[in-house]
Model the fold of this input.
Amino acid sequence: MGDGYDPGVDRAMPRPPWPRRLPSPVWSALTWCAAALFALLLFVTTTSRMGPLPLPSHESVSVGVLPREAMAVASALALGWAHRRPLPVFGVLLAESCAAAAVGAKTWPFFLVMAVLVGYLAATRPRRTALAAACVELAAWPCQWWAMDQAQEALSDFLSMMAALIAVVAIAWLTGNSVRRQRDYGQALRTQALTAERLRIAREVHDMVAHSMGVIAIQAGAAGLVLDTRPEDARKALDAIETTSRETLAGLRRMLVSLRRADDDTATPPAAVGLEAVDRLAETTTDAGVRVEVHWQGERRPLPPEVDVAAFRIIQESVTNTVRHSGARHCQVSVDYGDEELAVEIVDDGRGAGRAGARADVRAGAASGSGYGISGMRERVALLNGLFSAGTRPEGGFRVAAQLPL
Done:
């Protein structure tokens, strides 16, 4: 489609947990069913004083059933909106419990439902709101107990019921708060993952494009200078520009393809560029006018992919900075394969001062230095728990060094 929509992305999206797959009308229907059950429970418990779930007697039906039917219906209507307006519904139920206590009816169903609402508030509303609702509910119970002239009953009954209410409200609040914390933690993880992915993509794009654009700019300038006097040299510069641009476009295409793959388990990731490309990097940079010498020390062997890629990107970015900023004519790259670490060093004979500022030493993420390229190299080394330094040399030029644990 012309708008860039990819239907494969939607097909590859993971299914959410089953509660979130239920449409809003289903949740509304479930809420109203719960409200109807609560109305029935409330009607049964408020039409008699004998036991927790008695059937209404003939006298209670003839005297007080109609007002209590109205109370049950009103409570059900209020509870039906609990999913969308839990705090107002909590206030309505609290007021109705006070009205029920005033006429001598049982109020424990109200407090049971209000405890559930406390848990819902703890999961969906600010923590202070849920705590305030819990405190109000716990304070309302003893007030209604004494208002119903039950002070003559045993103090142990009051204490046991109060303890039970405290336990129910506490469990509801802790459950809701746990749901909230899990949701916040999941959101924080998703945000952190997105940030890390953006930084990774930014580093890759910067390292890939910056070097190529630097080489292209130098070759284009050289071609313009010798276009009339030395057309063969100008042609070579234009050929180098074409080759560099094609390689860069191919690298960007591979990156975009890897990012667009929806199924990471079955897709084969593109081969990452590692230290095997250093010689090619030195060749293209030398063609651009900065002679690059590469010195290999130690036994060259396969490296962990993350170390291999990081080492090459550090060398590439350092050489790019040499080409673009230093005015150097010579750059030396050293790669030392140690037993426990890989050491890379890049030095040039350019101006040095003014390129990246003061010296920057980093282990596991220290923040110093300046320049986006320096920051990208620093982040790569910090992710691998290595040591990074960049700064001017006393004898002139600039030096970048990194030690990457194997």
